[in-house]
Design brief:
The structure is a single chain. With 522 residues, the chain is α+β, with helices and mostly antiparallel strands. Helices cover 29% and strands 23% of the residues. It contains 16 helices and 19 strands. The strands form 4 sheets. Strands 1, 8, 9, 10, 11, 12, 13, 14, 15, 16 and 17 form an 11-stranded mixed beta sheet that branches. Strands 4-5-7-6 form a 4-stranded antiparallel beta sheet, covered by helices on one side. A hairpin with a 5-residue loop joins strand 8 and strand 9 (205-211). Helix 8 (292-301) runs antiparallel to helix 10 (339-348) and helix 15 (455-461) runs antiparallel to helix 16 (463-480). It is globular and about 70 Å long.
Length: 522
């Protein structure tokens, strides 16, 4: 479940994006009049507070809020956004950012160094969501209105941290006396190209954004003035809306519908590798899966190769926990099904064929066709081993709330990095935490925690040692503790209206469409 440059840099990026697009087709309505409509099968907003946000709302928030830097998927380096430049000291413990002049929040107040300091400090104080990304920060100083300096307790790549899809947003902490209540009402305090105008929780037309007239990037060329997010129950409904011209973009359709979209007149498709992995998180703290033999048996029962084949190009094989393209990826670890081992492990635990029946409660994302295939095939396999899977499809918000209460034995979910780095695959998902938040295997392993705590600094000071630590952590989580299974890495397959120009996929901001960079054809 993550680009605002100086004028020259914007034009450069737009040219790059346009070069990746096929010739446009006529727009259904004059440029700027028809909205950009993003249709999806998951709720958009879980948390309105940008300092606490840690879920699906990234798809909207990256158009409403901005960060100091932006991770460029072409160069695989950070690029300017709210900061035009930055520098670090030789020891990597002091970082100074020069801010873009003339930027204002949607509230009308200026975005200056004091505002950056206030928003980051407030996010740090929340101690929730992805606020951990600022753990290395000892202090923040506003040197002058356009210069802000961070002093660190230990070196981290702060330019990359500042590009994070979560917890790195700069927002107006003076928007209201009670900022928490302000956000809870579905309001925003960002500086991005779009601002929130309507939110209807639970409705199909959940969220509407409109262009912020005072946006620093300007509106001189054709843009989408309105961005809407529609939430539907099934991919079939999403595809129907695309066909009828009532939706502009669908983030994920499944193999069958994607194949149809690829040949549908008036539609265009995009296919890129992603940093998003599917995970089955096993309850290590209570219930039948507290027994590591049961967890290992379920790991062994998954038909990894069969799933990749069945999903027909919408996923790629996983190897370890971290996907290819990031430090921490471990090649040569693609898992394989071993039913004999699964049967043996279940028998040793007193279950399996001829043993005590075993019932496992599993939750997965409602409306996700790939997860449906996983659950159906795994349930059928385990049934032959005298294991019944009680599977429940749920909206993500409800699934997450249940998981935080330890309400199931297996959680099926997606994970992507908080910023273009491997740490959050471990530090957020498998590091001990109470309440668990996203450690939904409820793993408590002090040795693993100590190892993970070394990674942010090692990533800067000794990347070879960091890679070795990631490999050790991978073995600890998957082999020794058997806390999870990773069946695939998602291939980002998108379908969208052919009149949209300039779309490109960025794995650091999963499922995000940067609507300001798009060009509706006239």
């Amino acid at each position: 479940m993550r680009r605002r440059f100086a004028a020259a840099a914007v034009l450069t990026l737009l040219a790059l994006l346009a070069a990746c697009s096929t010739p446009p087709e006529p727009q259904r309505a004059p440029a700027g009049e028809s909205p950009f409509v993003y249709v999806r099968t998951a709720d958009v907003v879980t948390e309105w507070d940008p300092g606490r946000s840690y879920s699906n709302e990234i798809v909207a928030f990256q158009n409403v809020y901005e960060t100091l830097t932006y991770w460029n998927p072409v160069t695989r380096r950070t690029a300017p956004r709210l900061a035009t430049s930055w520098r670090s000291s030789a020891d990597g413990r002091t970082w100074t950012f020069t801010l873009r002049p003339g930027v204002t929040f949607h509230t009308g107040r200026p975005l200056d160094a004091a505002a950056v300091k206030a928003s980051v400090e407030r996010t740090m104080r929340t101690g929730t969501g992805a606020s951990y990304i600022w753990n290395a920060v000892a202090s923040i100083r506003a040197d002058d209105p356009l210069t802000v300096t961070f002093a660190l307790k230990y070196p981290v790549p702060l330019d990359v941290v500042a590009s994070a899809g979560y917890a790195a947003y700069v927002y107006d902490t003076k928007a209201a006396p009670d900022l928490t209540a302000w956000f809870r009402q579905g309001r925003d305090a960002g500086s991005g190209p779009y601002t929130v105008t309507a939110w209807k929780k639970g409705a199909e037309d959940e969220l509407t954004l409109r262009a912020y007239a005072g946006y620093w990037g300007g509106w001189r060329r054709p843009h989408y003035d309105t961005v809407k997010f529609k939430v539907v129950a099934t991919p079939e409904r999403a595809y129907e809306l695309l066909q009828r011209g009532e939706a502009t973009f669908a983030g994920r359709l499944g193999p069958r519908l994607y194949a149809r979209a690829a040949v549908e007149p008036g539609l265009r498709t995009s296919e890129r590798p992603s940093f998003t992995t599917a995970m089955l998180l096993f309850n290590t703290a209570a219930g039948p899966m507290r027994d590591v033999r049961v967890r290992r048996a379920v790991q062994q029962a998954i038909d990894y190769r069969g799933l990749v084949k069945a999903l027909n190009g919408s996923v790629a094989p996983a190897s370890g926990i971290v996907p290819e393209g990031l430090l921490g990826h471990v090649p040569g670890r693609a898992p394989r099904q071993d039913l004999a081992a699964a049967r043996r492990l279940l028998t040793q635990s007193g279950h399996g064929p001829g043993g005590r029946p075993l019932r496992l409660r599993l939750t997965y994302s409602e409306g996700d066709p790939d997860q449906q295939v996983l659950v159906r095939r795994l349930s059928a396999t385990l049934r032959r081993l005298n294991v019944t899977v009680q599977a429940t499809a749920m909206p993500w918000n409800e699934q997450w709330e249940l998981a935080k209460k330890r309400g199931q034995d297996v959680v099926v979910m997606y994970w992507w990095p908080d910023y273009a780095d491997a740490y959050s695959y471990f530090g957020t998902v498998f590091h001990g935490a109470e309440p668990p938040v996203l450690n939904l295997s409820y793993l408590s392993d002090q040795g693993l925690d100590a190892l993970l705590d070394t990674l942010p600094e090692l990533t800067v000071t000794d990347r070879t040692a960091a890679q070795q630590a990631y490999e050790k952590a991978t073995r600890r989580v998957l082999d020794q503790r058997a806390a999870a299974a990773v069946p695939w890495v998602v291939t980002a397959r998108r379908a969208y209206y052919a009149g949209v120009q300039g779309y490109d996929d960025n794995p650091a901001y999963p499922d995000v469409v940067f609507a300001y960079l798009l060009r509706p054809s006239a």
